[in-house]
């Protein structure tokens, strides 16, 4: 049995935390002020969709497709993006709270994070080549074996990463925040 397809539809102020989202695929749809907290979105395809002022905290996203999806001013605590379908995985985040989320081993080349909270987020073995972290709070975010070549962290805040454990060639940093790259050496810098 084939899935339904919703195209160019706007879903406004819907609560899917208790009532499931229809088993369908969504193309060029907008979700405004919707609650997906704890919802099961597994196996759903979202293509060229936008989530604006939504709560997706703790949603199940196993084999979910996020292809050219924008999340704006959304609460997204504890999401496991490593469980999503990696094929065509392209996302953008603006003003989102992604604390305690995981992007373990995700391929996210050129992904843009703007004004996001990424506290305690796991970027272990994530490909973030040419990614942009514009005005993002990365307190206690985990970077280990992460590819950050040509990434832009000039306006990122509170990050700590070890240059010996991550690939940071030609990544962009600003002074004085770049000094955080020396944290593990416990240096006294005047």
How would you describe what is shown here?
The N and C termini lie far apart (68 Å). Strands 1, 2, 3, 4, 5, 6, 7, 8, 9 and 10 form a ten-stranded parallel β-sheet that branches. The protein has strands spanning 4-7, 10-12, 24-27, 30-32, 45-47, 50-52, 65-72, 90-94, 112-114, 132-134. It folds into two domains: 1-71 and 85-90, Pectate Lyase C-like, CATH 2.160.20; 98-185, 3 Solenoid (Pectate Lyase C-like), CATH 2.160.20.80. The mean pLDDT is 94. It is mainly beta and 190 residues long. The radius of gyration is 17 Å and the shape is elongated. It contains no helices and ten strands.
Provide tags for this entry.
190 residues; mainly beta; Pectate Lyase C-like; 2 domains; ten-stranded parallel beta sheet; 0% helix
Short description:
This protein is an all-beta fold and 190 residues long.
Please render the helix and strand layout as text.
Blueprint: E1 4-7, E2 10-12, E3 24-27, E4 30-32, E5 45-47, E6 50-52, E7 65-72, E8 90-94, E9 112-114, E10 132-134
Parallel strand pairs: 1-3, 2-4, 3-5, 4-6, 5-7, 6-7, 7-8, 8-9, 9-10
N-to-C CA distance: 68 Å
What is the CATH fold-level name of the largest domain?
Pectate Lyase C-like
Decide which structural class fits the backbone: mainly beta
CATH top-level class of the largest domain: Mainly Beta
